[in-house]
Design goal:
The protein has 229 residues and is of the alpha/beta class. Helix content is 43%, strand content 25%. It has two domains: 119 residues, Rossmann fold; 96 residues, Winged helix-like DNA-binding domain superfamily/Winged helix DNA-binding domain (Arc Repressor Mutant, subunit A, Orthogonal Bundle). A hairpin with a 4-residue loop joins strand 9 and strand 10.
Length: 229
């Protein structure tokens, strides 16, 4: 899952990003509304975390504009301005939640997960393929009821492959889903992630495998189906 955080307070943004990364989310951080608009044109996000007052404008007005454009992604607004009238205006503008600053990162993540669970995009949050089960909100992978300890980027690879199970996912699409804009990515990072994920699947007895489509990308397929073919 990919999150867009729009906040110009560097220390706060860094702390939130680190907490979200630790929980297995991919995060892009922008400091202005112009940067946020450019990010929305480049990537798809599951939720927007938005500061109310930005250097180049009002986050509330920008959220209203997004809603008028038909962008329905969940949004949580944050601000140290916490009077009743402002909170009402925030919800009327289309925000799904409001969190007053200073913010506890634990509470922010708990509220964010609650929003994602009730989002229309998450009506069936548990993804099952073969004997593997994936919870995109909790970022947990289980095989045969046993939870696997998998690094964040391998979980992101698996999530992207699961969303297109049985179909070849282009390499570029996988890379775009894995990394935030400011991540430093080595040339073989995807191959390393695929190798580690294959090891996890094999050692856990998963009934699925990752097939390489040379020069194109990767396919997640059931072992039984692959054997029959």
């Amino acid at each position: 899952m990919r999150i867009l955080l729009v906040d110009h307070h560097a220390d706060f943004a860094r702390a939130v990003k680190e907490a979200l990364l630790y929980c297995g989310f991919a995060v892009d951080v922008t400091r202005t509304l112009d940067e946020a608009a450019a990010a929305l044109d480049c990537a798809n996000y599951h939720i927007l975390l938005l500061e109310l007052v930005l250097p180049d404008g009002d986050g509330l007005d920008w959220l209203k504009q997004l809603r008028r454009q038909g962008r329905s992604m969940p949004a949580m607004m944050m601000s140290s301005l916490n009077d009743l009238g402002r909170r009402i205006a925030i919800f009327n503008a289309g925000a799904d939640d409001f969190l007053p600053k200073p913010v506890s990162t634990d509470e922010l993540i708990a509220r964010m997960r609650a929003i994602l669970r009730r989002s229309t995009q998450m009506t069936a949050p548990l993804v099952t393929f073969g004997n593997l089960h994936f919870d995109p909100i909790a970022r947990q992978v289980a095989v045969g009821g046993q939870i696997l300890k998998i690094a964040r980027r391998e979980v992101c690879i698996l999530e992207h492959l699961l969303n297109r199970a049985g179909r070849t996912v282009p390499r570029a699409s996988l890379e775009d889903s894995l990394y935030a804009f400011d991540d430093e990515v080595s040339t073989n990072a995807l191959e390393v992630g695929i190798y580690r994920l294959r090891t996890h699947l094999s050692q856990s007895g998963a009934t699925l495998r990752i097939k390489t489509a040379r020069g194109v990308g990767y396919t997640l397929e059931l072992i039984e189906a692959a054997s029959a073919a």
